[in-house]
Amino acid sequence: MATMTAASPRSSQVQSPGILLPAYSLWLREIVRFYRQKARVAGVIASPLLFWIVLGSGFAHSFSSAGSGPTSGSYMGYFFPGAVAMIVLFTAIFSMMSLIQDRNEGFLLSVLAAPVSRSAIVLGKVLGGATLAAAQGVIFLVFGPLAGVPVSASGVALSVLVIAMISFELTAMGFAIAWPMDSTQAFHAIVNLLLIPLWLLSGSLFPLSGASGWLRLCMMLNPLTYGVEALRSSLYPGASTQFPLPVNLAVTAGFCLLTFAASWAIANRRTHRPAA
Amino acid sequence: MATLSERAAHLPAAAAIPPIELLQLSHNYGSRQALENLSLVVRPREIFGLLGPNGSGKTTVFRILSTLIVPTGGSALINGFDAARDPNRVRSQTGIVFQASNLDIKLTVTENLRHQGHLYGMSGAGLAARIHEVLDRLGLSDRAGDYVETLSGGMRRRVELAKGLIQSPSVLLLDEPSTGLDPGARRDLWQYLAMLRDREDVSILVTTHMMEEAERCDRLAILNEGKLVAIGSPWELKSAIGGDVVLFETDSEETAASLAARMAVRFSVEPAVLGKTVRLEREEGHRFVAGAVEAFPGEIDAVSVSKPSLEDVFIQRTGHRFWSEAKENELWQR
């Protein structure tokens, strides 16, 4: 038995790991864990499709005049960007639930006790979740032509960008909500209370123009509204939206930064209380 | 502790700096005082035990040293660096094995270790070689590609140890490392810790509530209600108790109390009452027993005479049993 010290340097010589390597490792773990859980893969792809078809065709009859532009005359077409936002929301929620699981299973402890900056942890986890959410949102675009989405390179590129931004903001928001929590039940309560209404009032199901009073105000204050509007204009160029595309993109980008900063601040608190 | 940190930075040999030093360490969770002015030094290349019942503060010490909580008073130093002020320096020199499993069961053994290495800035061929080396040393090489969820409890504990050692730390912290291990796996673990101490010059701190585990430490500190009760090698601590430990069991607490009072008068001893049991320390305990049983016929149900154990050290210093109210929690955990 040779000694281990001979072959490997003592930790005092180990340099700071920086941000990229730990963030990459945490990101990779999210991806690997996802595709090893086949039920998760199936559930997240199938359920929005089901929602889109069932909800979309159900509402189509009662909402026959809800189409918001010449290229998205049917409700199925109107509902399509909302369905994409829903996929992204579901995946973001699921992946940030893993944060609570990591904490309860003790995995997070070993990350917190490693010489890793908190921004690397936030970045790795959020980018991991956002990658999964965005990938599924983009995969769902395949059904676009069925909903009357015109196919063009610029439209697809812009849609992918918007989906990535929505994925990032929702995942970062999920991170900030999940970090202080120790039970997935409590997280579910917040999901029902906050995240589902966030989606319902984002213009996904019914247009902002049709709402009035306090409902309209809620929708205007909802950051996801701007993401869904941006997605609608990139999928259907020329669709009528409440705000112009640059405004929608700017608000969405701003919210990405805000949610990331919130996550970073929450993860950076060091306390006198147990971390897990 | 700026002066200490600076000294550590300028002295590469670090000969005079202890691997672990606690200075007046105090901590409270709200109004509950978990640690009170705890000071102690762990010497280089020793296995140091923190022995205490549940709630004695040993896990709080562990959390402070592993930088997961900031103490409310005093300081904890690892290789001269303050765990509260310089957490990343402390983290990079410390290997940690938590009480609860912290592996990702959906990843393989190697993937878990690779991830851990990345967190310490290791990568590529150097990391691969280190993973190979640690797995080999812990007898895990043939399980390297297995998912952690397929491993037994003892195997998982070994992977956790491998995880704690991946960055070749000079200080290793283990929280109740024998939890959930069968006797064979427990023996292997302690042999491995001794090997790390002897060949790798690792200084090791172990928290435990098990006497037999504490017996294996080079030195140990006994904690009770957040305070240091005794410190020394197991042998030193036990020899501080004079003679034998004699226990008289009676049928009720009242009988025990009155028996103790009368014994104190008759034999000029200082007995302690622990529930239904009267306990005292005495040279040549067997001779004393013969006299006592004759003097108080019918009041004593059972008698035992033994050499002092670490539990006796605890009882002598605190006046109560090691497992008072903690015992019930223990049963729930099993």
What is this entry, summarized?
The complex is a heterodimer of chains A (276) and B (334). With 276 residues, chain A is mainly α.
The CATH class of the largest domain in chain B turns out to be: Alpha Beta
Class from secondary-structure proportions of chain A? mainly alpha
SSE topology string of chain A: HHHHHHHHHHH
Strands of the widest sheet of chain B, in order across it, are: 6-7-8-3-9-10
Strand content of chain B: 15-25%
Low-confidence stretches of chain A: 1-9, 66-72
Helix content of chain B: 25-40%
Radius of gyration of chain A: 21 Å
CATH superfamily of the largest domain in chain B: P-loop containing nucleotide triphosphate hydrolases
Q: Characteristics of this structure?
A:
heterodimer, A: 276 residues, mainly alpha, 72% helix, 0% strand, B: 334 residues, alpha/beta, Rossmann fold, Alpha-Beta Plaits, 2 domains, six-stranded mixed sheet, four-stranded antiparallel sheet, 13 helices, 14 strands, disordered N terminus, disordered C terminus
How would you portray this structure in words?
The complex is a heterodimer of chains A (276) and B (334). By secondary structure, chain A is an all-alpha fold. Helices cover 72% and strands 0% of the residues of chain A. Chain A has one domain. Residues 1-9 and 66-72 of chain A have low confidence and may be disordered. Chain B folds into 2 domains: 2-233, 3-Layer(aba) Sandwich (Rossmann fold); 238-333, Alpha-Beta Plaits, CATH 3.30.70. Chain B is built from 13 helices and 14 strands. In chain B, the strands form 3 sheets. Chain B has a 6-stranded mixed sheet with strand order 6-7-8-3-9-10, with helices on both faces. Chain B has a 4-stranded antiparallel sheet with strand order 2-1-4-5, with helices on both faces. Mean pLDDT of chain B is 86; it is low at 1-14 and 325-334. The interface between A and B is large, with 44 and 55 residues.
